[in-house]
Specification:
alpha+beta; binds zinc ion; four-stranded antiparallel β-sheet
Protein backbone atom coordinates (compact mmCIF):
# COMPACT_ATOMS: atom_id res chain seq x y z
CA UNK A 1 0.00 0.00 0.00
CA UNK A 2 2.73 2.39 1.10
CA UNK A 3 4.79 1.34 -1.89
CA UNK A 4 1.98 2.07 -4.34
CA UNK A 5 1.51 5.51 -2.80
CA UNK A 6 5.20 6.24 -3.26
CA UNK A 7 5.09 5.15 -6.92
CA UNK A 8 2.12 7.42 -7.57
CA UNK A 9 3.79 10.35 -5.81
CA UNK A 10 6.94 9.81 -7.81
CA UNK A 11 4.92 9.66 -11.00
CA UNK A 12 3.13 12.91 -10.19
CA UNK A 13 6.42 14.66 -9.25
CA UNK A 14 8.11 13.48 -12.39
CA UNK A 15 5.10 14.48 -14.44
CA UNK A 16 5.21 18.03 -13.09
CA UNK A 17 8.97 18.44 -13.08
CA UNK A 18 9.88 16.78 -16.33
CA UNK A 19 7.07 16.36 -18.76
CA UNK A 20 4.86 19.19 -17.55
CA UNK A 21 6.79 22.02 -19.07
CA UNK A 22 7.84 20.26 -22.21
CA UNK A 23 4.67 18.68 -23.46
CA UNK A 24 2.95 20.91 -26.00
CA UNK A 25 -0.76 21.41 -25.58
CA UNK A 26 -2.80 19.76 -28.28
CA UNK A 27 -3.28 22.12 -31.18
CA UNK A 28 -0.51 24.52 -30.14
CA UNK A 29 1.86 25.80 -32.85
CA UNK A 30 4.49 23.27 -33.76
CA UNK A 31 2.40 20.40 -32.54
CA UNK A 32 2.86 17.53 -34.93
CA UNK A 33 -0.18 15.37 -35.42
CA UNK A 34 1.07 11.83 -35.61
CA UNK A 35 -1.08 9.04 -36.92
CA UNK A 36 -0.62 5.73 -35.20
CA UNK A 37 -0.55 2.65 -37.38
CA UNK A 38 -4.17 1.62 -37.72
CA UNK A 39 -5.72 -1.79 -38.26
CA UNK A 40 -8.63 -2.20 -40.70
CA UNK A 41 -10.83 -3.12 -37.78
CA UNK A 42 -9.91 0.07 -35.89
CA UNK A 43 -10.42 2.07 -39.09
CA UNK A 44 -13.88 0.57 -39.55
CA UNK A 45 -14.82 1.45 -35.95
CA UNK A 46 -13.36 4.95 -36.31
CA UNK A 47 -15.69 5.76 -39.21
CA UNK A 48 -18.86 5.09 -37.21
CA UNK A 49 -20.90 8.18 -36.29
CA UNK A 50 -24.60 7.35 -35.91
CA UNK A 51 -25.61 10.66 -34.24
CA UNK A 52 -24.34 12.62 -37.25
CA UNK A 53 -26.68 10.71 -39.57
CA UNK A 54 -29.61 12.31 -37.72
CA UNK A 55 -28.39 15.90 -38.25
CA UNK A 56 -29.71 18.47 -40.72
CA UNK A 57 -26.21 18.82 -42.09
CA UNK A 58 -26.22 15.18 -43.14
CA UNK A 59 -29.67 15.40 -44.71
CA UNK A 60 -28.58 18.50 -46.62
CA UNK A 61 -25.41 16.86 -47.94
CA UNK A 62 -27.35 13.75 -48.84
CA UNK A 63 -29.76 15.64 -51.06
CA UNK A 64 -27.95 18.65 -52.46
CA UNK A 65 -25.66 16.99 -55.04
CA UNK A 66 -26.94 17.44 -58.58
CA UNK A 67 -27.75 14.17 -60.36
CA UNK A 68 -28.47 15.65 -63.79
CA UNK A 69 -26.80 13.82 -66.65
CA UNK A 70 -25.78 10.80 -64.58
CA UNK A 71 -25.91 7.21 -65.82
CA UNK A 72 -28.66 5.28 -63.99
CA UNK A 73 -26.21 2.55 -62.97
CA UNK A 74 -24.01 5.09 -61.21
CA UNK A 75 -27.08 6.29 -59.32
CA UNK A 76 -28.04 2.70 -58.52
CA UNK A 77 -24.53 1.94 -57.27
CA UNK A 78 -24.39 5.10 -55.18
CA UNK A 79 -27.82 4.63 -53.58
CA UNK A 80 -27.08 1.04 -52.56
CA UNK A 81 -23.70 2.08 -51.21
CA UNK A 82 -25.25 4.95 -49.29
CA UNK A 83 -27.76 2.55 -47.74
CA UNK A 84 -24.88 0.28 -46.67
CA UNK A 85 -22.93 3.21 -45.20
CA UNK A 86 -26.00 4.31 -43.24
CA UNK A 87 -26.49 0.79 -41.93
CA UNK A 88 -22.94 0.92 -40.61
CA UNK A 89 -23.17 4.51 -39.37
CA UNK A 90 -20.65 5.95 -41.85
CA UNK A 91 -21.31 9.60 -42.75
CA UNK A 92 -20.39 9.65 -46.45
CA UNK A 93 -21.93 11.63 -49.30
CA UNK A 94 -21.68 12.11 -53.07
CA UNK A 95 -19.54 15.18 -53.62
CA UNK A 96 -19.90 15.20 -57.40
CA UNK A 97 -21.44 13.12 -60.20
CA UNK A 98 -21.52 14.82 -63.61
CA UNK A 99 -18.75 17.32 -64.29
CA UNK A 100 -18.61 19.73 -67.22
CA UNK A 101 -15.62 19.69 -69.58
CA UNK A 102 -14.75 23.23 -68.48
CA UNK A 103 -14.61 22.31 -64.80
CA UNK A 104 -12.60 19.18 -65.66
CA UNK A 105 -10.04 21.31 -67.53
CA UNK A 106 -9.82 23.74 -64.58
CA UNK A 107 -9.14 20.84 -62.19
CA UNK A 108 -6.51 19.48 -64.58
CA UNK A 109 -4.71 22.84 -64.62
CA UNK A 110 -4.80 22.80 -60.80
CA UNK A 111 -3.15 19.36 -60.84
CA UNK A 112 -5.81 17.54 -58.81
CA UNK A 113 -6.71 15.24 -61.70
CA UNK A 114 -4.85 13.50 -64.49
CA UNK A 115 -7.72 13.84 -66.96
CA UNK A 116 -8.14 16.91 -69.17
CA UNK A 117 -11.53 18.28 -70.20
CA UNK A 118 -13.81 15.55 -71.67
CA UNK A 119 -11.31 12.81 -70.74
CA UNK A 120 -12.76 11.83 -67.39
CA UNK A 121 -15.65 9.45 -66.74
CA UNK A 122 -17.27 12.35 -64.83
CA UNK A 123 -17.66 14.29 -68.10
CA UNK A 124 -19.78 11.44 -69.49
CA UNK A 125 -21.98 10.96 -66.42
CA UNK A 126 -20.28 7.68 -65.56
CA UNK A 127 -18.54 8.48 -62.26
CA UNK A 128 -19.11 9.66 -58.71
CA UNK A 129 -16.82 11.03 -56.01
CA UNK A 130 -17.87 9.85 -52.55
CA UNK A 131 -16.28 11.59 -49.55
CA UNK A 132 -16.66 11.81 -45.77
CA UNK A 133 -19.22 14.41 -44.60
CA UNK A 134 -16.86 16.14 -42.16
CA UNK A 135 -13.36 15.08 -43.13
CA UNK A 136 -13.95 15.00 -46.90
CA UNK A 137 -10.83 13.46 -48.54
CA UNK A 138 -8.92 13.39 -45.26
CA UNK A 139 -9.31 9.72 -44.32
CA UNK A 140 -6.41 7.39 -43.54
CA UNK A 141 -5.42 4.84 -46.21
CA UNK A 142 -6.87 2.10 -43.96
CA UNK A 143 -10.18 3.98 -43.62
CA UNK A 144 -10.32 4.41 -47.42
CA UNK A 145 -9.50 0.72 -47.69
CA UNK A 146 -12.62 -0.10 -45.65
CA UNK A 147 -14.73 2.20 -47.88
CA UNK A 148 -13.26 0.57 -51.01
CA UNK A 149 -13.98 -2.95 -49.81
CA UNK A 150 -17.59 -2.09 -48.97
CA UNK A 151 -18.09 -0.38 -52.36
CA UNK A 152 -16.77 -3.38 -54.26
CA UNK A 153 -18.99 -5.73 -52.29
CA UNK A 154 -22.06 -3.58 -52.98
CA UNK A 155 -21.21 -3.52 -56.72
CA UNK A 156 -20.72 -7.28 -56.77
CA UNK A 157 -24.09 -7.90 -55.10
CA UNK A 158 -25.79 -5.56 -57.59
CA UNK A 159 -23.95 -7.10 -60.54
CA UNK A 160 -22.56 -3.68 -61.51
CA UNK A 161 -19.08 -3.38 -62.96
CA UNK A 162 -17.37 -0.45 -61.27
CA UNK A 163 -13.75 0.58 -60.86
CA UNK A 164 -12.43 2.13 -57.66
CA UNK A 165 -9.89 4.98 -57.86
CA UNK A 166 -8.22 3.69 -54.69
CA UNK A 167 -6.71 0.86 -56.77
CA UNK A 168 -4.92 3.25 -59.13
CA UNK A 169 -1.33 4.48 -59.02
CA UNK A 170 -2.87 7.96 -59.20
CA UNK A 171 -4.55 7.24 -55.85
CA UNK A 172 -8.08 8.68 -55.93
CA UNK A 173 -10.03 6.72 -53.29
CA UNK A 174 -13.13 8.95 -53.42
CA UNK A 175 -13.63 8.11 -57.09
CA UNK A 176 -15.86 5.36 -58.54
CA UNK A 177 -16.63 4.87 -62.24
CA UNK A 178 -18.39 2.43 -64.56
CA UNK A 179 -15.92 -0.12 -65.94
CA UNK A 180 -17.19 0.31 -69.52
CA UNK A 181 -17.58 4.10 -69.56
CA UNK A 182 -15.37 4.47 -72.66
CA UNK A 183 -17.85 2.35 -74.65
CA UNK A 184 -20.58 4.73 -73.51
CA UNK A 185 -18.46 7.69 -74.59
CA UNK A 186 -17.58 6.19 -77.99
CA UNK A 187 -21.17 5.44 -78.83
CA UNK A 188 -22.18 8.92 -77.69
CA UNK A 189 -19.50 10.48 -79.89
CA UNK A 190 -20.62 8.46 -82.91
CA UNK A 191 -23.96 10.22 -82.95
CA UNK A 192 -24.33 13.95 -83.26
CA UNK A 193 -28.00 14.17 -82.45
CA UNK A 194 -27.62 13.03 -78.88
CA UNK A 195 -27.83 15.87 -76.36
CA UNK A 196 -24.81 17.20 -74.49
CA UNK A 197 -26.27 16.12 -71.17
CA UNK A 198 -27.96 12.75 -71.24
CA UNK A 199 -31.22 11.72 -69.64
CA UNK A 200 -31.84 8.32 -68.08
CA UNK A 201 -33.69 7.27 -71.26
CA UNK A 202 -30.70 8.29 -73.42
CA UNK A 203 -28.36 6.22 -71.26
CA UNK A 204 -30.64 3.19 -71.43
CA UNK A 205 -30.76 3.61 -75.21
CA UNK A 206 -26.95 3.62 -75.25
CA UNK A 207 -26.84 0.52 -73.04
CA UNK A 208 -29.21 -1.43 -75.30
CA UNK A 209 -27.10 -0.49 -78.37
CA UNK A 210 -23.96 -1.51 -76.50
CA UNK A 211 -25.37 -4.86 -75.48
CA UNK A 212 -26.50 -5.48 -79.08
CA UNK A 213 -22.99 -4.60 -80.26
CA UNK A 214 -21.41 -6.94 -77.70
CA UNK A 215 -23.79 -9.73 -78.63
CA UNK A 216 -22.94 -9.32 -82.33
CA UNK A 217 -19.23 -9.36 -81.56
CA UNK A 218 -19.67 -12.56 -79.58
CA UNK A 219 -21.72 -14.17 -82.35
CA UNK A 220 -19.00 -13.35 -84.89
CA UNK A 221 -16.47 -15.22 -82.77
CA UNK A 222 -18.62 -18.33 -82.72
CA UNK A 223 -17.96 -21.11 -85.27
CA UNK A 224 -20.44 -20.72 -88.14
CA UNK A 225 -22.25 -24.02 -87.56
CA UNK A 226 -23.05 -22.96 -83.97
CA UNK A 227 -24.46 -19.54 -84.86
CA UNK A 228 -28.21 -19.16 -84.46
ZN1 LIG B 1 -13.78 11.41 -59.50
Amino acid sequence: MKCAKRVIQRFIRRGFNKAGGEMPLAGSPGDVVRRLPQTYQAAAVNLVNFPYLKTRDYRHKKEKTDRTGVHPWVIEFFLSLQKEFERRGYPMFAFEFYRSDERQQALYVKGVTKARGAQSAHNWGCAVDIVHCERFWDLTPKEWGVIGAIGKEVARKRNLQVVWGGDWDFYDPAHWQLAHWRDVRNLWEDRFDWPEIMTTADFLDIESRLSAKRLNARLKQMPSHLRP
